[in-house]
Every structure is written in C-alpha cells, then in structure tokens.
Design brief:
With 328 residues, the protein is mainly α. It contains 15 helices and five strands.
C-alpha cells in the first residue's frame, strides 16, 4: 500500500462562505481529497483574531460553514474535517512556536500591516492578531503536512511556516518537514464592487443564498463604470460581470457577449440576468446536498466529532515528539 502525502488546509469561519471561496479553494479541496491524506480545518480560532469583540455569531457561522463544505462535496469518508478549537494541540503548539518566532518576522508579513490599515472598524492591534501566522504554522506543522493548498495571498504565511519549521529543527533536531504550497489555479473572482471577492470587503455572494437573493446580488453587481447609458459601448475587460461570464459561460458565448457589449447591442441588465442563471444552475447539486445535511444535523455533528478525534490522534503524536525534542 502506498502511503498518501499528508495535506492540510484551513478556512476561516467568519461570515458566510462565498463564491470566491467555493471556486477558488473548496472545489480544489474536493479534487485533492482522494489523492492525499487530507485534513480540512475550520479555523475558528483564527476567526477570533478579528471578531473577538463580537463573537456571538461565531457558533452559527461555523455550523453554516460546515454545511457549505459538506454540500460542496467534502467527503468525510475521505478527508478529515474538524474545528480547529476542538483540537487543543493547535493552541499548545502555537504557544511553543511563539517562543522561537522573532517579532520582526511577524511585523514584516505583508498582510499584517495591510489588514490593520484596511480594517478600520476593528482594533487589530492585539497580540493574537500579530500571532495569526504563528497559529497557522502550528496548524500545518502539527500534522507534518507536506502540502498546503492555498491562494497566492497566503504565500507569505506559508513561507513563515517554513522558516519557523527550520528554526525549530535547528534548535531541537529534525521534527518538522517543510510544508510546500500547492497554488490554487483559479483566477481571482471579483466581488459585487469589482474588488476581489472577500469577506472583509463585504462584497460577496454567499454560496448558501437563496436563488432569489443570489439573482438580486448578481443584478446589483458593478459593471464597466464608463458605461452609464444603455447606448454607451462597454469594455468587458473592465467589467466584473464579464469576469463571471469567463468562468461560467461557453467560449463561444463569451465572444458573442464581448462583441455585443462593445457595440452596445446588449444591455447590462440582460447580460447580468444571463450570468445569474448560469451561476444558479451550477449550484443545483450544492443546494440539494445542503438541504440534505441541514435536515440531519445529528449526522453533521457525528462527522465533526469523528474528524476532531482523528485530528487529535495525529496532533497528539506530533506534540509529544515536540515536547520530547525540546526537553519539556
Ligand atoms: N489563513 C488562511 C486563510 O485566511 C486560513 C488558514 C488557517 C489556513 N490555518 C491554515 C490555510 C492552515 C492553510 C493552512 O485563508
Ligand atoms: Fe459588463 Fe455585460 Fe454590461 Fe458589458 S453588457 S458592461 S459585460 S454587464
């Protein structure tokens, strides 16, 4: 029997899972789960770094996220699905790794400063937020994961995880393999306002939205800002709706729409309606599965309990190795 390579990834449980997460990350996980020894984690402790002042929503967000993941095709018979906070070893390894992580390694992480500047309505000047990537390193190293599927934005975090692993191995002997990213190929999905679709921008299309709401959201999308009147010609390359057509529509139809847009022969409303229909059609199986899981929450709880159990077994082994290596 060949041993499968260990793979781990995580997703934050703040707000609802959106189309960008689904296309950019989760569908990739679904592909990978059969090829690797896969661990998929709901990073609820990471969420706490930004929602600590208002954590009441967290419990519901987590559950909804699990339903979305299962409905997307994450298969608990193939992959280990669990809540980060249910595996206390994450917190323990985070603490231990924090001892050997030089502060400048953290303050120079590009997302650190940019997030603090971007997110004005929350006080992110905390110990926990600075340590966000250390916790992420702990997530990965705890399972000795060799593959970590992530988007480009996470590369600095992965580089830091490797640096921490090296430093640990240098001090205490070889315990951790260096994790490698496997980059998600998918192009960045624009959000309703044309910026990258992201929870922190509030410009998302939640994947669990009802067909009616989803249609409304697509119809509310920004288009080519220079196209003000119906008679103005449009520039598909500058239009977020066209980015959706690139994903959801046939090559042939993309060409047609592009021409119609550039000659003002199609209106934006019509164009968006076509887009909405394609998005909705692509999610029919998702909606069915989600209904199934949301009507059997006992089964969902079982899946998570088993997931945490399996994760803890692996995590506890690594942690005792870590403590032995250090001499704790
Ligand atoms: N920081 C990741 C994100 O925002 C989520 C995450 C937490 C993660 N722990 C991880 C990703 C471990 C990969 C591996 O997308
Ligand atoms: Fe965008 Fe379509 Fe309007 Fe052209 S017609 S600007 S592609 S929404």
């Amino acid at each position: 029997m060949t041993v499968k390579t260990r793979l781990l990834s995580g997703i934050q449980s703040t707000g609802k899972m959106h189309l960008g997460n689904y296309l950019g990350a989760v569908l990739n996980w679904v592909t990978l789960q059969s090829q690797f020894d896969a661990y998929f984690m709901i990073a609820d402790l990471h969420s706490l770094t930004t929602v600590y002042e208002n954590s009441a929503q967290l419990r519901e967000d987590k559950r909804e996220l699990v339903l979305d993941l299962l409905a997307s095709g994450i298969d608990p018979d193939q992959a280990c699905l669990f809540y980060q906070s249910e595996v206390p070893e994450h917190s323990e390894l985070h603490l231990i790794l924090s001892m050997i992580t030089p502060l400048p390694w953290l303050t120079r992480v590009p997302s650190y400063k940019s997030k603090i500047e971007e997110i004005q309505d929350k006080d992110l000047d905390t110990y926990g937020f600075l340590g966000y990537p250390v916790l992420q390193a702990a997530d990965i190293l705890l399972y000795k994961a060799q593959r970590v599927p992530v988007g480009k934005d996470q590369l600095p975090h992965l580089e830091l995880a490797r640096e921490i692993a090296r430093r640990f191995n240098h001090f205490y002997g070889p315990v951790f393999p260096e994790p490698q990213e496997s980059l998600t190929q998918f192009p960045t999905l624009p959000g309703l306002d044309g910026r990258k679709m992201s929870k922190s921008y509030g410009n998302t299309i939640p994947i669990s939205a009802s067909p009616e709401v989803m249609q409304k959201l697509v119809l509310s999308m920004l288009t080519d800002p220079a196209r003000i009147r119906r008679t103005d010609v449009g520039h598909p390359d500058l239009c977020p709706v066209f980015a959706f057509h690139r994903i959801y529509n046939s090559k042939e139809r993309q060409g047609e729409i592009s021409t119609l847009c550039q000659t003002a022969q199609i209106g934006c409303v019509e164009c968006k309606k076509e887009c909405a229909r394609l998005v909705l059609d692509s999610l029919s199986e998702f909606r069915q599965k989600r209904l199934h899981f949301s009507s059997d929450l006992g089964e969902v709880e079982n899946i998570l309990r088993k997931g945490a159990q399996k994760a803890r077994e692996t995590a506890a082994q690594t942690l005792s190795e870590v403590k032995r290596a250090i001499g704790l």
